[in-house]
Amino acid sequence: MVRPSRDLPLCCTSAHDRVAALRRERWLVRLMLLIPLFGIAFGAIGRLLAEERMVPPSDGTGYFAWQQSWITDLDFDVTDDIATHDTTFFPFMHARGDELVVINKYPTGVSQMILPATAPAQLAVLVWNRATGDDVQEDGRAPLVIGAGDLAVSAWSIVGLWFLFLTARHLTAPLPAAMATCAIWLGTAAFVYSWKLPLWSHGVSLAALSIAAWASIVRSSRDAMLAGAIRPALLVGFFCAMALAIRPTHTLVLLPLGLLLLHRWTGAMLRRPSGALAWAGWVMVGAIVPLGVEMASRMLLYGSIFFDGYANTSEGFDFSAPYLSNVLLFVEFGPVSGGRGILFAHPIVIIGLAGLLSAMFHWRGEQRWLAIGGWMTFAMTVYLYGSWWFWNLGWSYGARWSSDMAVPMGIGVAWFVHRFHDRPYRAFSYLAVLTLWSLWACS
């Protein structure tokens, strides 16, 4: 059911006018949500028709080596699959017993998320070759497999934006939530990594983080914890763990959800420990597969469940001298390239931060921790990326990590519009300017 925005002075309008206004609002909400949906869908169709099965050159098989290993080789050892491709991106070796193995710095989360699409595609290639005697490429970079992965990431991106809308709608109202969802998609790096370059990790990251937020904020109420509800707990565990399996730095992005859930769970423990403990147990059950696959693969390959491929390829951090001003404000125009500061390249984030700041003073209890956690996430991520030797992320659409901020910033934008506009559509003026700026400055 669509809740009305605060743009209707109910005491001064007739029932007919209110119904007509609600109908217009519903259509406007749908229109705003259709913009990213059709944008991502048409992008996927266009890539397939143009036969652009693009694997990023910097990937060097990375994510797709897991596909080849799991489906074709039936093992966790992606090192031999990486070695079959001529690339300079993986010159780093790690000692495993008496032998040296190639380091794959990429986690398994992307491959886990798209496996329901890529596995049937790769099996189809295998069956075709065995049945016809053909020699169609069988590894994780086979055209059919890449095409299936492309479509899977596009589908996950659409799902992620939908759950971002549902979460923001739960905290505000439908129209501000729809406007925020569309603005965050167009105004951050989520745009290009779900529309043009889906075979990077950011499209599936958006989905995992958005579903985790919805399962935590909307579905995991204190009553659900008291009852030991199974389904919400499994969703929280699975998608939070999957976000970590996609990129460990998502620990910071999950911080607001952790603070919210901890507040609720502590209260539930004081009232009914059995239900709260059961709920926490189901969360851990949900996390088993994503984290289990990630840790098992690292253990078998490199001898440690916490093996950090980035650190072992000399891509470390210097926390004593972070590039904070660069990460926030660095200015660069021209063709797509990395290094732009997030506030310069994606100023919609400023509205998101302002909305979260307002929420700190207007929300109460557990929801206030959600707003505080959003600001903590932003500040800690700025410090983390500023401390990385490769702070500018190289070839990138603006500040690539702005895509990871989609959930907290989307909630912030939705609250800002809801809080400061009796008629939310008035926010179109500056939201459009900010998103167009991002599209212009980063392209």
Structure write-up:
- The model has no long low-confidence stretch (mean pLDDT 88).
- The protein is built from 19 helices and 2 strands.
- A two-stranded antiparallel sheet has the order 1-2.
- With 443 residues, the protein is mainly α.
- The protein has helices at 15-49, 62-73, 79-83, 109-132, 143-171, 174-187, 190-195, 202-219, 222-226, 230-246, 250-253, 255-271, 273-302, 324-329, 342-345, 348-362, 366-387, 406-420, 428-441; strands spanning 93-96, 99-102.
- Strand 1 and strand 2 (99-102) form a beta hairpin.
How would you summarize this macromolecular structure in one to three sentences?
This protein is mainly alpha-helical and 443 residues long. It has 19 helices and 2 strands. The chain has helices spanning 15-49, 62-73, 79-83, 109-132, 143-171, 174-187, 190-195, 202-219, 222-226, 230-246, 250-253, 255-271, 273-302, 324-329, 342-345, 348-362, 366-387, 406-420, 428-441, and strands at residues 93-96, 99-102.
Order of helices and strands: HHHEEHHHHHHHHHHHHHHHH
Nearest-integer average pLDDT:
88
Poorly predicted segments? none
Based on secondary structure, the structural category is mainly alpha
- What percentage of residues falls in helices of 4 or more residues? 55-70%
Q: How much strand content do the residues show?
A: under 5%
In which order are the strands of the major sheet placed?
Answer: 1-2
Question: Can you tell me the overall shape?
Answer: globular
How far apart the termini lie comes to: 39 Å
Biggest β-sheet: count, sense, barrel? 2 strands, antiparallel
The count of β-strands is 2
Q: Report Rg.
A: 23 Å
- Helix count? 19
